């Protein structure tokens, strides 16, 4: 397994390279206390790769914001509305602080999922409810929380903490 399956994307955990296909994100209780020891991580994603990884979920989020703003006649993200609901490429060109905040608040799970897919990871399909034999037992690093999102040297940089563990999905649908 190489540590950089998607060109230019790199993840370091405790200062050591980590395989991108073995990178996940905590969905339930994101950012909450963990019983497992937390380790620092740094994920660097080339700005040029962000659009390809996040176009669909980002555009869907923007569309939802636009529709909600019209329906409720108020905006949860007035900066987004004032910017004209730009796509991710336009955000990179002229609204980086807003983009960093949106990535931090709304897009971490989508990003980790997209990186995993782009790096070759495919979750097994369960044959029936609770199919233990297709449980995902890969040992990997789970992002517990991102503390900062910044832009430097042509990269989006995500820093935070997570934990190592064997991920087992017991209940599937």
What tags apply to this protein structure?
35% helix, single chain, 173 residues, alpha+beta, six-stranded mixed sheet, disordered C terminus
Your description of this structure?
The protein has helices at 47-72, 78-82, 88-94, 96-118; strands spanning 10-13, 16-17, 23-25, 39-46, 139-152, 155-166. The protein contains four helices and six strands; from the N terminus they run ββββααααββ. Helix content is 35%, strand content 25%. Mean pLDDT is 84; it is low at 168-173. It has 173 residues and is of the alpha+beta class. A six-stranded mixed sheet has the order 2-1-4-6-5-3. Helix 1 crosses helix 4.
Furnish the topology, listing elements before pairings.
Blueprint: E1 10-13, E2 16-17, E3 23-25, E4 39-46, H1 47-72, H2 78-82, H3 88-94, H4 96-118, E5 139-152, E6 155-166
In DSSP terms (H or I, runs of 4 or more residues), the helix count works out at 4
Give the helices and strands as they follow along the chain: EEEEHHHHEE
Largest sheet: 6 strands, mixed
Q: Roughly what is the average pLDDT, rounded to an integer?
A: 84
Structural classification: alpha+beta
Cα-based radius of gyration, to the nearest Å: 17 Å
Q: Regions with pLDDT < 50 over 5+ consecutive residues?
A: 168-173
Task: Report strand %.
Answer: 15-25%
Report the end-to-end length measured between terminal Cα atoms: 29 Å
Q: Order of strands in the sheet with the most strands?
A: 2-1-4-6-5-3
Instruction: Give the fraction of residues assigned to helices.
Output: 25-40%
Q: What is the total tally of β strands?
A: 6
Principal-axes shape call: globular
């Amino acid at each position: 397994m190489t540590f950089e399956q998607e060109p230019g994307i790199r993840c370091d955990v405790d200062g050591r390279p980590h395989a991108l296909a073995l990178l996940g994100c905590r969905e339930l209780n994101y950012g909450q206390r963990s019983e497992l020891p937390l380790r620092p991580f740094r994920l660097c994603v080339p700005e040029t790769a962000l659009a390809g990884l996040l176009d669909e979920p980002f555009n869907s989020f923007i569309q939802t914001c636009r529709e909600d703003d019209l329906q409720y006649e108020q905006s949860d993200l007035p900066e987004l509305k004032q910017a004209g609901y730009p796509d991710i490429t336009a955000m990179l060109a002229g609204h980086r602080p807003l983009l960093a905040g949106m990535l931090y608040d709304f897009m971490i799970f989508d990003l980790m999922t997209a990186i995993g897919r782009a790096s070759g990871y495919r979750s097994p399909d369960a044959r029936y409810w609770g199919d233990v034999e297709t449980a995902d037992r890969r040992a990997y690093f789970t992002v517990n929380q991102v503390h900062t999102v910044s832009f430097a040297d042509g990269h989006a940089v995500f820093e935070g903490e997570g934990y190592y563990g064997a991920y087992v999905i017991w209940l599937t649908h």
